[in-house]
Amino acid sequence: MKKLKNILDICINNGKRVFDVIRETNFTPDQIKRLHRVFTLAETAKLVGVSTEAIRKAEIAGKISKAETDEKSKRRMFTLKEINECRDYFGTRPGRKDGDDPTTVAFINFKGGVYKSTASLHFAQHLALEGYKVLFVDTDSQATSTQFFGIIPDNIEKELATIAPFLIGDVSSLSNSIINTYWEGLDLIPANLGLYDAEILVPIRVTTGSMGRDFYTLLKEGLETVKHAYDVVVIDAPPSLGIISMNVIYAADGLVVPIPPLFADFSSTLEFFSMLREVADNLGDREFKFLKLLITKFDGSEESKTFVKVIKQVFGGDLVMSNIFSNTAEIPRASQDLKTVYEVTDVKVKQTYLRAIGILDRVNKELEKTILSTWPSYAKNLVAEGVF
Predict the structure, then answer these.
(1) How many CB atoms lie within 10 A of CB 333?
(2) What's the pLDDT at 337?
(3) Contact (Cβ atoms closer than 8 angstroms) between residue 363 and residue 326
(4) Closest alpha carbon to 341 in 331, 349, 351, 332
(5) CATH number for domain 25-90, candidates 3.40.50.10420, 3.30.2010.10, 1.10.1660.10, 3.30.479.30
(6) Using the 8-state DSSP alphabet, how is residue 66 labeled?
(7) What is the pTM of this model?
(8) Which of 68, 191, 246, 302 is most buried as measured by Cβ atoms within 10 A of its Cβ?
């Protein structure tokens, strides 16, 4: 019989080969992930918020860079960087104004498999597409989101700087943990298994009296050292209750709780709320600007339809988001290449792809408006428009 450690070594080594193949196949030629999605003139004009003619005139006048022509389509295609250049020139780039504080939103549920990472990744990328400056913080030691950014924690020569060094007191800022990603305007603080160190060492510091402050305020204090360079901070929380989860909750201005409309997940969410209630007792008077339940993995079955009604009736319309993160074949298909739907360029079935984009955009725009409603410079206009 084989020893457990030998079996595990085989599984780990074979598993790493899978990631190597993915990197060699999708991150060519130098195995560095890049955003290959580009945009037509019409798509660019819509994203920028001006006419195609206005963009042409700005190019002719040399006010903005002229986009390159795609060899196959013979059409000029714009990168996200060029789109943001247009936004900056025309003054249409969104973001915080004077008096608006950066918003930290955490996607959290203590149960795995609820689309927590999927929803948070797509939301962060949506904001980047819209022109916001975004910091994505991966606090899950499984590092799923980190890997979607093209970073395989165990395969890099230089050890990743996560939030752990700040939490255990080795550094005084999170600035050295930030990685510029291939997404224009979207930076990352990655995760790896080293986050377990914080789960162990922080309680030791609390026990020995060397902490000097409340242990659950650490991440919030760390984000204070970097967040003012961004409009929104998006946190992918770990699927468990621990030191890091409590830090995420305290650091967040708003919480998004993904919940699939199935009995098992509904029951788990109730347990999550019970645990969250106990955590809230320890966090003092921490107030949140919003708490939203996001229905995920809706498959159109009668059971799903029934539990959507149950969720809305039990928790109320103010808490449950209007738009639903429905199942779509595009998410697992894109995931096979460590991509999100927003990164897909090799569209197989256009109708299926557009349906997926529609689902994502509706959910993410609703969340975007929720954040905007917390910014004084936007709130008045949203109320006037009847959005809130």
Answers:
(1) 18
(2) 87
(3) no
(4) 331
(5) 1.10.1660.10
(6) P
(7) 0.90
(8) 191
